[in-house]
Amino acid sequence: MFKVYDYIMYGMTGVCKVIDITNEKFANGEKRDYYVLSPIYSENTIIKTPVDNKQIPMRKIISKVNVTSLINDIPNMETIWIDDEKIRNKQFNTMLKSGKCEELIKLIRSICSNKEYIQSIGKKLHNVDEKIMKEAERLLHEEFAIILDISPNEVTSYISSHIPQ
């Protein structure tokens, strides 16, 4: 269970701060605990979600040590590419929805490396792949930004300057 003031990743919403934990009573007398979440990069939004919500993945953000470790591992991370667009889309969406930083990095690297190849032969990346990559970058950048105490816009340059050569 999370505590008030914890930063968490909440599904595809991104980084949220737990601002309260409430107990709601329903008309049938049932009581349920809820997290009250404030998305960090979405002003004036409050989310209430059951503490035992199994449908939307929630996890505590990773530590700075884990961020450093992930960045150090980037050169060794595999990239994947599936030529069949439907299968690729399904696989990439599964990786995206996992919300795991390592999966998001693999996803971004895989699409980026394929984008470079596609552009070198005069073609354009599929819109679906571009959208998935942008969403993966948003989630990863939000989480890293909170941990590193920088803005999401600074994350790419931070990672670039800290990847081992």
Helix share of residues?
A: 40-55%
Q: Given the helix and strand composition, which structural class is it?
A: alpha+beta
Find the count of extended strands (DSSP E, 2+ residues).
5
Question: Which residue ranges are poorly predicted, with pLDDT under 50 across at least 5 consecutive positions?
Answer: none
In N-to-C order, the SSE pattern is EEEEEHHHHH
Spatial separation of the terminal alpha carbons? 39 Å
Strand order in the sheet with the most strands: 4-3-2-1-5
Largest sheet: 5 strands, antiparallel
**Beta-strand residue percentage:** 15-25%
Shape field: globular
Total count of helical runs of at least 4 residues: 5
Specify the oligomeric state.
single chain
What is the typical, i.e. mean, pLDDT?
Answer: 93
Rg, nearest Å: 18 Å
Topology:
Blueprint: E1 7-10, E2 14-25, E3 31-39, E4 47-50, E5 58-60, H1 64-73, H2 85-98, H3 101-120, H4 127-148, H5 155-162
Antiparallel strand pairs: 1-2, 1-5, 2-3, 3-4
Helix pairs in contact: 2-4, 3-4
Summarize it:
This protein is of the alpha+beta class and 165 residues long. Helix content is 45%, strand content 19%.
Task: Pick out its properties.
5 strands, alpha+beta, single chain, five-stranded antiparallel sheet, 165 residues
